[in-house]
Write a structure and sequence with these properties.
The chain has helices spanning 16-29, 46-49, 60-65, 70-73, 99-111, 127-133, 147-162, 177-181, 188-195, 207-215, 227-239, 256-265, and strands spanning 3-8, 34-38, 75-76, 83-86, 116-120, 138-143, 167-175, 199-204. It has 266 residues and is of the alpha/beta class. The protein has one domain: P-loop containing nucleotide triphosphate hydrolases (Rossmann fold, 3-Layer(aba) Sandwich). An eight-stranded mixed β-sheet has the order 3-4-2-5-1-6-7-8, with helices on both faces. α1 packs across α11 (227-239). Bound molecules: adenosine-5'-diphosphate and magnesium ion (MG). Magnesium ion binds at residues 16-17, 40, 45, 120. This is Septum site-determining protein MinD.
C-alpha cells in the first residue's frame, strides 16, 4: 500500500516545499521508497531544494501526454536512491493538469511500488490546490505561528474535511522559542488550540534551513544534524508510527537548554 500525503498550507512561504524536501529525504534515509511530486505547476521549486534541477529531462506533463514513461520522468536522487522526484513543468498555467490526471499520476506511482508519495501543494485554495489534494489520503498541514498563516491553515483544514481527507496532521514551522517565552509569538499550544488536529512536529526557525535551500541540500543530509534537522527526522519517524517526544514549550521553569536536550534525546 502506498501512502499518498499532500503537504498544504493555504498561505504561501510557510515551508511546504522545505518540509517536502526534508521529510522526503528523511523517510528515504529511513528505508522508505518515496516519490515527491511538485504540484506547483507554474512555479516549481522542489527540484531546486533537492538540488535536482539540472537532471530534469521529462516532466509529469510528458508522462500524461504519453510522450515518455513514468520511469523516464522520475529523477532519482544521487545521494539517496530511495528518493525520486516527479517534476512539474514550468511556464504553464496552474490549471495545466486536472484532478483526474493527478489521480492517474499517483496510481502510476503506486503501481511502481513506492511506499510514500508526497505531493507538494501550491499556495492558495484555487485550482492548483484542488489538483494537489485530489489523490491524497493523508494531509500534512504546515503553518508558521503567525495569525495570518494559522487562519489560512484553518480554512484549508475545512476544505480537506469537505474533501474527505480524514488523516490530517500539523507541522508548526519556524518557531522561535525565545519569542514564545516573551509572549511575542503564538505558542505551539495556542496554534494547536485553534487548529485542533494532531501535532506531527515543530520545526525551529533556523537560518541553516535557508542556506540548505540555496545549496540544494536538505538539512537532514548533514552529518551532524542541526536542531531543525533532528526535528525533521523526528517527524519522519512519527509518520512511520514511532513514538518520539516533542519539544515542550509550555513546561514551566523551562529553558532553551533543557528543550534542546529533550529534543536530542527524543
Ligand atoms: P512554501 O513552499 O510554503 O511556499 P518554502 O518551503 O519555499 O515555503 O519556504 C519559504 C522560505 O522560508 C524559504 O526561503 C525557506 O528557506 C524559508 N524557511 C522555511 N522553513 C524555515 C525554517 N524552519 N527556518 C528558517 N527558514 C525557513
Ligand atoms: Mg512551495
Amino acid at each position: 500500500m502506498t501512502r499518498v500525503v499532500v503537504l498544504t498550507s493555504g498561505k504561501g512561504g510557510v515551508g511546504k516545499t522545505t518540509c517536502t524536501a526534508n521529510l522526503g529525504m528523511a523517510l528515504a534515509q529511513q528505508g522508505q521508497r518515496i516519490a515527491v511530486i511538485d504540484a506547483d505547476f507554474g512555479l516549481r521549486n522542489l527540484d531546486l531544494l533537492l538540488g535536482l534541477e539540472n537532471r530534469i529531462v521529462f516532466t509529469a506533463l510528458d508522462v500524461l501526454a504519453g510522450d515518455c514513461r513514468l520511469e523516464q520522468a522520475l529523477v532519482k536522487d544521487k545521494r539517496q536512491p530511495n528518493l525520486a522526484l516527479l517534476p512539474a513543468a514550468q511556464n504553464r498555467s496552474k490549471e495545466a493538469i486536472t484532478p483526474e490526471q493527478m489521480i492517474e499520476l499517483v496510481s502510476k506511482l503506486s503501481a511502481a511500488g513506492f511506499d510514500f508519495v508526497f505531493i507538494d501543494c501550491p499556495a492558495g485554495i484555487e485550482g492548483g490546490f484542488r489538483n494537489a489534494i485530489a489523490a491524497a489520503k493523508e494531509a500534512i498541514v504546515v503553518t508558521t505561528p503567525e495569525i495570518s498563516a494559522v487562519r489560512d491553515a484553518d480554512r484549508v483544514i475545512g476544505l480537506l474535511e469537505a474533501n474527505d481527507i480524514k488523516t490530517k496532521r500539523l507541522i508548526i514551522n519556524r518557531l522561535k522559542p525565545a519569542m514564545v517565552q516573551e509572549d511575542q509569538m503564538m505558542s505551539v499550544q495556542d496554534v494547536q488550540d485553534i487548529l485542533a488536529i494532531p501535532l506531527l512536529g515543530v520545526i525551529p526557525d533556523d537560518e541553516r534551513v535557508i542556506v540548505s535551500t540555496n545549496k540544494g541540500e536538505p538539512l537532514v543530509l548533514e552529518k551532524k544534524l542541526s536542531l531543525a534537522g533532528v526535528a525533521f527526522s523526528n517527524v519522519a519517524r512519527r509518520l512511520l508510527g514511532e513514538k518520539v517526544s516533542f519539544l515542550d514549550l509550555s513546561a514551566p521553569h523551562d529553558d532553551l537548554f533543557s528543550r534542546v536536550r529533550r529534543l536530542f534525546r527524543g
